[in-house]
Each structure stands twice: as C-alpha cells, then as structure tokens.
Specification:
The chain has about 375 residues and is α+β, with helices and mostly antiparallel strands. It has three domains: about 120 residues, no CATH class; about 140 residues, no CATH class; about 80 residues, no CATH class. It is built from eight helices and 22 strands. The strands form five sheets. Strands 1, 2, 3, 4, 5, 6, 7, 8, 9, 10 and 11 form an eleven-stranded mixed beta sheet that branches. A three-stranded antiparallel beta sheet has the order 13-12-22. A three-stranded antiparallel beta sheet has the order 15-20-19. The N terminus is likely disordered. The protein binds zinc ion. The site of zinc ion (ZN) has 7 residues, from loops.
Length: about 375
C-alpha cells in the first residue's frame, strides 16, 4: 500500500478536494454503502459540484431532497446529474443530515453499479468526537477518555495514510471505528477530544495502527498472529486490570444447523456438523485454529471463524466449545480481537489513579505520545 512519494502526492491531489489537499487533517468516512436512495438535508447555503469541485451544478439555501441513483445519473429530487461522483458542501452551520443523522463537514456521493456510497469529509478532530462516544462511555473517568481519544486519533491517521488511493479512509462500523456523526457527540467526550487535540501515538517516530478492544480477559494479543504487523507496541501484555469488566465472560448457544448455514454463506459448504475441535492456542491463550468436523474436516483460523459467525456473537477467540445434542455451546472470556488497548482494563487503571500517558504506555509499550 505504501506509495513512492510522487505517486503519493499525485493520488493525494486526485483524492482530495481543493482545501483538503493542503492538510492531512481531513478524514473520509464511508457512512452509507449500497444505498438506492436516501434523504438529504443541508442547513444554510450549499453548493453541489462535480468531481473537480470547481464546476457548480446546483446551489441555494436549505436543501431538502431525496437522492436517487440511476444507471447513468445521480438525482437530487427532480434534478439529474450525469456524473459518477458529486460533492455537497455547506457553509454555516456546517451540517448535513442524511437519513435523520447529522454530520459535520461535507459529503461526497459516489455512484457504482446502481447504488450509492456516501462519504463524509470531516475534520479529524470532529471525526474523533463522533467516534469517542461509541467507543467509550461518556461517564467514564477523564484519563481513560483521553487515552481512548489518542488511540482513536492514531488509528484514524494510520488509516488515512494507508487508504489514500481509495474512495474513503475508514468505514463507520466496527471494522474501523464506530462513528455516529454530530448526533453522537457528548459534552464530556468532546471535552476530552479537545484536551488531547493533535496528540497521537508513535513508535520510533512512526504512526502505527493503535488497535483497541473491549476486554482482553488476562492478556492482550500479539497483532502479528492476526495481521501483517509486527512491532513492539502490539506484541501483547499481561492485563489483570479488566478482571471486573462486565464483559469478562460470555456464553453462546448456536444450533449446528445455524453454524452450517453461516459457513455456507461464507463459501464453505459442509454437511451435517458432528463436532468442533479446537486445534491450538497461542501464548495469550487465544485459539489459533479450529476444525469443523462433518463428513470431512474443515480447518479454519479462529479469527475467520469469528468473522463468519459474527464477531459480536463469538466475542473473542478465547473459548471452549461443547456439542450438546443439535447445539454448540460456547463458553468464552473477553470481547474483541484483543490487540492493543484493553478498554475495560484502561477504565480500571484510570479508576486506580493512572493517567492517560501511563495507560497508553502500558498497553502500547515502547510508544510515545507526540503531536502530529
Ligand atoms: Zn484486559
């Protein structure tokens, strides 16, 4: 993904609107995908432009319309534009409402295969405000909110570096960071974003993906076992802090038929499942691989099994499984992939009087809090 410098600059200019190219502080968030139509409101004066952002297609005050996608055009109410991409920019109060949810910044509508991708262009600090409420409770201690804001900002900047050639930097779901826009902001979380403004984590002078998760249940995970990243801050640490997390244990009963169906949807056709056998554990205690036994054996990495069944059903790769009649009974600990900051561990560290720097140093050893 890394570009040579001139290619990098070329794509920077291609990807970003005038005004966006001079600064790395705008992030592009995919907020809606595969939409056939959507309700759009823009408060105050607005401009609709083409991809160059120079040719004005429509302008006015207080836009309230239905956006529809056709094979060769994007329509705003009665007005059709034969374009694959259009850009909607507002002045004051800088707010666009899509399907009832308010977003700061501007919006790009991208047409592909008769459906729309909606990308929110937003100032990085405003984006972090829209994320923090979802990733941590606004009632939590200030120091853990600060640590979380810095981790979110670092993760976002890393994605911005990695995705310059794509139509967006991050999605608004659990596969990036959950982002709810202006609607999701709260006073305390906004305050902690402001107090850590511009602060990020670096390792040996470089931004890294500062992963985080809800509860590690004893030891955080070595990122190199899941993804292609092998650096000291993401090698895993022991964590006793999260032992009182409300998400420490989990329990799930799924029918073998349901598991078979989910595997089939993911392209793994198996006959009646007879057993699920755990094949091995890594040093953090998480399962590496397991085998689905039917008329043959299907070996799967635990992370793939989690994503096929649903990462919020199989909450972690730390579990035991027993077959009882036609069901699989899972008993597990922890929630999330386990890499980086353990959010409930960080919460209890803050409760014990640790500050955000101590929390971040603990979960990302060798990293430093710096400005970008
Ligand atoms: Zn933990």
């Amino acid at each position: 993904m890394k570009q040579k410098i001139f290619i990098f600059l070329f794509f920077c200019l291609l990807s970003f609107a005038p005004g966006y190219s001079q600064t790395a502080s705008y992030i592009r968030v995919a907020i809606l995908d595969n939409a056939k139509s959507l309700n759009l409101k823009a408060k105050g004066s607005y401009e609709v432009t083409d991809i160059s952002r120079k040719k004005i297609l429509l302008q006015g005050n207080n836009l309230k319309t239905t956006v529809t996608v056709y094979r060769d055009a994007i329509s705003l109410g009665q007005k059709s534009f034969r374009k694959n991409k259009i850009f909607i920019k507002t002045r004051e109060p800088d707010e666009i409402i899509i399907n009832g949810r308010a977003f700061r910044g501007d919006v790009e509508l991208i047409k592909s295969d008769n459906s729309l991708l909606v990308v929110n262009y937003i100032e990085l600090e405003d984006y972090i405000k829209g994320v923090l409420y979802h990733e941590a409770s606004h009632y939590w201690p200030q120091e853990v909110l600060k640590a979380q804001a810095i981790a979110c900002r670092t993760y976002a900047l890393y994605q911005m570096q990695e995705n310059k050639r794509n139509d967006y930097d991050v999605t608004n779901d659990i596969y990036s960071q959950v982002y709810g826009g202006r609607t999701s902001e709260r006073y305390r979380t906004n305050q902690m974003v402001d107090e850590t403004r511009g602060l990020i984590l670096k390792f040996k002078g470089k931004i890294f993906p500062a992963y985080y998760h809800a509860t590690c249940a004893g030891h955080t995970e070595d990122a190199s076992l899941l993804w292609n990243i092998n650096i000291a801050p993401l090698k895993g640490v022991a964590c006793d802090f999260c032992k009182d997390s409300p998400h420490f244990d989990w329990h799930l009963v799924l029918s073998l038929e349901e598991i078979k169906d989910k595997l089939a949807q993911a392209g793994y056709k198996v006959k009646a499942i007879k057993d699920i056998v755990i094949l091995g554990h890594d040093t953090s205690g998480r399962i590496t691989d397991l085998s689905i036994v039917s008329d043959k054996e299907l070996k799967l990495p635990a992370k793939d099994f989690r994503s096929i069944i649903g990462p919020n059903l199989i909450r972690s790769a730390k579990f035991q499984v027993n077959i009882a009649d036609k069901d699989a009974v899972f008993m597990g600990t922890g929630w999330g992939h386990g890499v980086g900051l353990c959010q409930w561990g960080a919460y209890f560290m803050a409760k014990q009087g640790k500050n955000y720097k101590e929390i971040l140093k603990y979960y990302y050893p060798g990293s430093n809090v710096e400005t970008f």
